[in-house]
Amino acid sequence: MGETGDLLDGPRARGAFLLRVLMEPPWALQITEDAPLTMVAVLTDGSWLRQPGEESRRLTAGDILLVRGATPYVLSDDLTTPPDIVIGPGQSCSARDGRDLSGELASGVRAWGNHSAGRDTMLVASYPEQAQLGTMLGAALPELTLVRGSDSPLLPVLVAEAARDALGQEAVLDRILDVVLIAVVRAWAAEAPSGVAGLQVLADPAVAEAVRLIRSQPAHPWTVDALASRAGVSRSVLARRFQDVVGIPPIGYLAQWRLSLAADLLRDTDRTLAAISREVGYASPFSLSTAFKKAYGVSPQAYRARTTA
Question: Which of 100, 104, 298, 303 gets the most CB atoms within 10 Å of its CB?
Fold first, then answer.
């Protein structure tokens, strides 16, 4: 099981946020989004990335920003343009005086900006839940990553599809987004220095074995003791190293993996909730429903209805 392969097995977007941003100079966006991961694909030359304490960088078409959580940054047409629009948690959008701009700057299907034919264009996509991104990928990436010159052939397809409003379009966009993100992370991993935190996320043999067991046998009644025994280390050693490498305890990772699989089965199959519960390791449909609603905010039935409509 390769390290990068496991990082890239995580993304499973479901109802991801996608928006085409169309801006005409002068403009500047101050951003403190709080999604587990936001991807900004730069589609035209000439904009700038500004970060607190970092050297400003000029962006060109094909550049991709990967931003974790509420990492602050500014995108603008010019280094001298002061931020006049604030993008906050939950994709909130306001002027510097607090006035809501969400509706005022909407300009079509998944489009937003100060001009419908603006010179500077970007595609913004956010994973709304950590479980959809994957714990290991989330732990591996720096707070802000700039990948220069992405050559993913599906990026133009994603941009084009984001402008469409067709039956099942949300599911189409989710699947394309996953593939584009995988291509971008693969490009980043190929160029990043070997010592970058997170690239060694599965370098620990004991943690790698525990992850393999969980992924290959999600319905098994795993305990930390059982995983440690199979991995050839003590319970305390596995618990500590798993937390250090993956970012959550082994049983927390098991729960996330089971719910991710359950979401896939709800969306992609017509299996009953009872059958899905057994397949992913929950004792009953009730226990799965309780855990699922806590993680995704809706019941399994509501999630199925929303994602298969």
Answer: 303
